[in-house]
Amino acid sequence: MARPRRYDPDRRERIVDAALRVVGRDGIAGLSHRTVAAEADVPLGSTTYHFGSLDELLVAALRRANATFGQALRESPELAGPDADLAAALARIMGRWLDEDRGEVELAYELYLAALRRPALRPVAEEWAGEVRAALAGRTDLATARGLVAMMDGLCLMYLLGGHRYQEGYARAMLARVLDEGSEAPVVPLSEPPTAPTDT
Q: Are residues 72 and 97 in contact, defined by beta-carbon separation less than 8 angstroms?
């Protein structure tokens, strides 16, 4: 007699969480149905039942990873007021996102940039930009919102890849330039990336 199937309504979500942990630990190259099943402690057939391909699993993982920053924008009281300093608010929100869980941000960008070689991920990567633009609706025009998204992406990657400490004032000045609020304002230069100690 076949063993009855255990009711497990959260299994799909646990598989997505496991995929994020695998990518965070081993990179996308380490992702497979087998590694995710082992990480989630579910039968291998469960991962293929819920996700017919690794691309489907990566789409779900990227959508989950994208949610954090979009939620921060939607729920931020700093963006609620019509007279709020938009550049300052965005710089502050970015700083919190980068400082609170750098590993989570790195994971989100690893999945985001995977869309360069995985076309199935591109619509989900665009969802992130669309969500940020939607959060800025009513505060600026569409073209400027696109520019802000591009600037925030560039700043995040610069700090993640360059070894710089996040500087909120610099980010605010750059975002203000996109908003055409501070084109003449002096910009504090980035600090040099840390260097390895040398023997003296």
A: yes
